[in-house]
From TrEMBL:
Name under which the protein is recorded: Pentatricopeptide repeat-containing protein
InterPro entries: PPR_rpt, TPR-like_helical_dom_sf
High-level lineage: Eukaryota, Viridiplantae, Streptophyta, Embryophyta, Tracheophyta
One Pfam family in the UniProt entry: PPR_2
The organism of origin for this protein: Thalictrum thalictroides
Alphabetically ordered keywords of this record: Repeat
PPR repeats: 52-86, 87-121, 122-156, 157-191, 192-226, 227-261, 262-297
Taxonomic superkingdom: Eukaryota
Amino acid sequence: MDAIRAFEKIGDFDLTPGVDDLDQLIFMLCKKKFVKEAQQFFDRVKFDFAPSPKSYTILIRGWGEVGDAVEARKLFDEILQRGCSVDLIAFNTLLESLCRGGKTDEAYKLFKEMGLYGLKPDGSTYSVFIRASCEVNDVHSAVKVLDRMRRYNLAPNVFTYNCIVKLFVKNQMLDDAYLLLDEMIERGVSPDIWSYNAIEAFHCDHCEVHKALKMITRMENDGCMPNRHTYNMALKMLIRVGRFDRATELWESMDQRGYYAPVSTYAVMIHGLCKKKGKVEEACCFFEMMIDEGLPPYPCTCELVRDRLLGLGLLENTQILTNKMLRSTSCSIQELSKIMAGHKNSMEAAEERMKQS
């Protein structure tokens, strides 16, 4: 590989690579999923560099990310054989690699032996098992580990908390999910957009209008601004259940919140309204807003609007939209006008350009 060949030629420039350089190389290789190549090179040069626990940790994590717990464990054993001290980062990385490789029981056994290595579990150690439990939808085990962390006054990070929030939501334990949000704030771990959106998705999927809108308000109050996914979920739900008044209110409030609708959010409104009886003209209003703002709609949106208008016998409206698109300063919108005008093959050509861009 080019990176390895370049590393081997460093000596030609009267430079001597150190263990930090080696670590950087194997880190980049593992990041690109060239773990096997990184391992082979490491085995070839390790006796020239006296690698540190960090070197091994990089490779252990690399093997873990590709799901090979056996190779990860071999490296850990090699650290011990070489008489190197095992640090907590290396230990936690091995535990995570074992769990990712489906060897959770082996990870638990190793966890119980931490004291033999002079190590004490930290928040990251316990978080490994929480995430592993969440992966297999094991609520009991995840909560059990979380309770242990509470006893030792160890707070999970936001990523681990989010795993449990999603687990609760998946199992329809909404009260527990909300309590966990409160706990995060109390313990100084600020919920992020993923925390809130996990719960918002449940409310939207179950058409719980009041709770979904209340969650958006709570997000703002907690200092986490709703994002595109939040609004798209809520707007889609509101249109689906026929609460067009609330959808309009939410849309109009977005500007006040500093959120400016992208193409996907416009598409939610247009596609949703087109499917509702008597709402095609409102859909066209949003379509025109897009054109006025210079936002090229999706090709499928153009086709949908055209089909709905023609289905209602409103050919003149398609011509009005086509002319409006042709007057746009956006070349993309001008090109998309061909779909609205009904030109053959325009849809396929537009979709192909979108894939390439």
